[in-house]
Amino acid sequence: GISEIRWADGSIQVSAPNLGGSAADNLGNHIATTTLNMNGYQINDVSTITVFGQNVVISPYSPSGNHNFAISIGSGAYNNYNGVGIGYGASSNCSGGTGIGYNAKNNKNSYGLGVGYNAYSNYDYGVGVGCGAHDNYSYGVGIGSGAYGNSNSGVGVGYNASLNYNYGVGVGYGTYENNDYGLGIGAGANANHNFGVGIGYIGKNNHHCGVGVGYSASDNYEWGVGIGAGSANNHDYGTGIGAYTSSKSSSVALGCFAKA
Predict the structure, then answer these.
(1) C-alpha to C-alpha distance for 232 and 11, rounded to whole angstroms
(2) Torsion over CA of 165, 172, 242 and 259, rounded to 10 degrees?
(3) What was the pLDDT predicted at 11?
(4) For the chain, how far is it from start to end, CA to CA, in angstroms?
(5) Using an 8 Å Cβ cutoff, are 75 and 62 in contact?
(6) C-alpha distances out from residue 255 to 135, 244, 250, 259, Å
(7) How far apart are CA 244 and CA 241, in angstroms?
């Protein structure tokens, strides 16, 4: 037969199970006074879900500790507060931090962002993208597996591109400690600083507007330019072109082992 339920707000729910179905009920007329427990059943055919509360948690389990405007999506995504954790074990992202990826955790303090497997502990506007990209901070950016510790607007791009700081940029495997607007491009290009540029494998320690291009083209400074493998110690506007060249005082050295 037909049955009806009269709700406290005056609405009526009508059902007729014997007629092969039930009449539609405008659930919008009802206001819950406790937690809605679906007992494991699904909610189907939803157009839009709007959340006005503090937290959004989507997990096959019951992750704990999400609070203060947290968004947690994934198994084990827990203890995010005023932060976002997306992925398995993406946890403890807080104070505007965001972790996206397996175990992307503890990104924090002023919008730190970690994206990738184990991308963690990026903070103070630091960004880590890649497996194990971590501890990038103060606007530092690390992109690549193990790209870590880039800080103060330093940028490291590549496997283990790390510890670039004060607007220094390292691009390539193991490029590190380029600083004070220095640029290192190539595996192991490091410690280029004060507007120095090192391009090539182990192009390092070019500084004060010095430029080194080539394998181990290093220690060029004061507008000196070294082009060629091992072209080093060109300085005071000197230019060396060729392997193991060296020059100074606006002179030019051309050819292998040339000095000027």
Answers:
(1) 87
(2) 30
(3) 65
(4) 107
(5) no
(6) 44, 9, 17, 9
(7) 8
